[in-house]
Amino acid sequence: MAVKLHCRAQSPNEKIGVAVVGTGGRGQSHLGAFVSDPRTEVVAVCDVDEKHAAESADGVEKQQGRRPAVHSDLRRVLDDRAVQIVSTATPNHWHALCGVWAMQAGKDVYIEKPISHNIVEGAALVAAAAKYGRMCQVGTQCRSTKAVREAIEFLHGGGIGEVKFARGLCYKRRASIGPLGDYPIPAEVNFDLWSGPAVYSEPRVTRPRFHYDWHWQRLYGNGDLGNQGPHQTDIARWGLGIQSHPTSILSYGGRLGYQAERKDPLYVDAGDTANTEVSIYQYPGDKSIVFETRGLGVDESADEELHRLFGTNRDNKVGVVFYGSDGYLVQRTYTDCVAMDKDWNVIKTFSGGGDHFGNFIDACIQRDSALLFASASEGHLSAGISHLGNISYYLGEKQKMSVAELQKELEARSSAVENLSTLERTVQHLRDNGVDLDQYPMSLGKYLEFDPQKEVFTNAPEANVLLGREYRQGFECPGPTNV
After folding, report:
1. Does residue 417 have a pLDDT over 90?
2. In this structure, is residue 3 part of a structural domain?
3. Is the pTM of this model over 0.90?
4. Largest CA-CA distance found in the chain, in angstroms, rounded
5. Residues 109, 185: one domain?
6. Are the C-beta atoms of residues 197 and 472 closer than 8 Å to each other?
7. Is the model's pLDDT at 329 over the cut of 90?
8. pLDDT tens digits, residue range 116-166?
9. Per-residue confidence at 300, pLDDT binned at 50, 70, 90?
10. Based on the domain organization, do 231 and 266 belong to the same domain?
11. Residues 100 and 149 in one domain
């Protein structure tokens, strides 16, 4: 792609021109942030859904008094010298290519989590930010909230003693996305551009609701491990002081429970990512992270320990629990954290939000990537947790096991008692939701060993194939060595 580098004008009175790419639910938050910041102006919106694009341009015009340009093709945005920032909230499979192309064109970029659809793409974004001297902020906005920043500072100061283990939780109800079938592409959507780097599955997609439910199809999304997960795994890694990929990964789970929900044993949901998934990550220094995804009903389904840690919230739980030698630290919401001693007594609370977009704009103006709270490298390591966990699950997807067999395998791989208790909780959760684990057993993913520096698996050549993907002609995302 032939590009020219563009630099922002230095006049202190000139606003920074922003293009928002992808104007769905999260994209509206991007638009709102840049319209409301006096330092920026939304000069372009880009969406392959012409209805979404037009409605978003109307909304921006009402708020800032000037209508932005409207595009369906990202490449037209990159040719626009009025655009100095590209902010993307597209489906995951477009994140990396949008970011790389934008930085090659001399634009700074804000990229929603996960920063990439796979490991190779994440590495490419890190390389592009360094090569072109661009600001690249990732949408893991907890990095900017007062509550989380102060809680992590407390943790790093020894507030709960020595900490080597963290659990990330996504206990969030997700209904079935509907049965497999042929469904028409919405007339207002340019499906060629929507598909972009992914396989062009003309003429149909296998989900009834076109927008958002792509999250649960691995061609485009990464399941909740890669959707919600990067927020919590980012905090877990930050709190544990981890600045590398894990050295070993093991996942288990499945897409379970929708048969019972529909009272149809033959029901097949159109999603192909796990809705129940536990991923175990080991790091140097005997540190570990476990991430739990639960997509079925979660009311009253957690253990009593989590009830104590999360307080009165007994249904959805999205957060992080750090286990220290002297107590616990819990991220309960994006703006609420609490520290407890070993007897569950609250010893300190943390609250307050933040301005993640504002932090990004600060860095853009000062041309200092060190100011970014969620740089490309941080985003790559945190999204990589999700990608590696999914690779383990995908490689073992057909390896169905009874609960007893799963327990035996976990005992062989880890002596950590929390891994066995996590399995017990997961089994109980599934049974609470009517899942017959004899008829629909969980799958055990492949145990993977990973070289964090070379970013390759050392015990499974077949896993290395899944570190990247094949691209459609014209939508190839360059690798980290040729950005």
Report:
1. no
2. no
3. yes
4. 68
5. no
6. yes
7. yes
8. 999 999 999 999 999 999 999 999 999 999 999 999 999 999 999 999 999
9. low
10. yes
11. no
Domain co-membership, 136 together with 165: no
The arithmetic mean of pLDDT across residues 259-280, rounded, is 93
Rounded Cα–Cα distance for residues 393 and 250 (Å): 8
Contact 169, 232 (CB under 8 A): yes
Provide the CATH number for the domain around residue 193. Answer: 3.30.360.10
Distance CA 301, CA 371 (A): 41
CB 466 within 8 A of CB 391: yes
Quote the CA–CA distance of 19 and 109 in Å, as a whole number.
Answer: 10
Of the three residues 98, 125, 142, the one that is the final residue of a domain is 142
Tell me how many domains the chain contains.
Answer: 2
Beta bridge partners of 183: 205
Q: Can the peptide bond before residue 452 be classed as cis, meaning omega within 30 degrees of 0? A: no
Q: What CATH number is associated with residue 51?
A: 3.40.50.720
Q: Are residues 282 and 383 in the same domain?
A: yes
Q: Residue 363: which residues within 8 A CB-CB, separation 6 or more?
A: 135, 137, 369, 371, 372
- Residues 48-65: tens digit of each pLDDT: 999 999 999 999 999 999
Is residue 473 domain-resident?
A: no
Do 47 and 22 lie in one domain? The reply is yes
The tokens of 468 are what? 């990247």
Q: Find out whether 292 and 170 touch, Cβ atoms under 8 Å.
A: yes
Q: Which residues contact 236 (CB under 8 A, 6 or more apart)?
A: 166, 167, 168, 289, 291, 320, 322
Tokens of 90: 């597209």
Do residues 411 and 445 share a domain?
yes
Would strands 317-324 and 327-333 be described as parallel, antiparallel, or unpaired? antiparallel
Domain that holds residue 462: 144-354+376-467
Regarding whether 167 and 202 lie in a shared domain, the answer is yes
**Final residue belonging to a domain, choices 142, 170, 202:** 142
**Structural domain contains residue 50:** yes
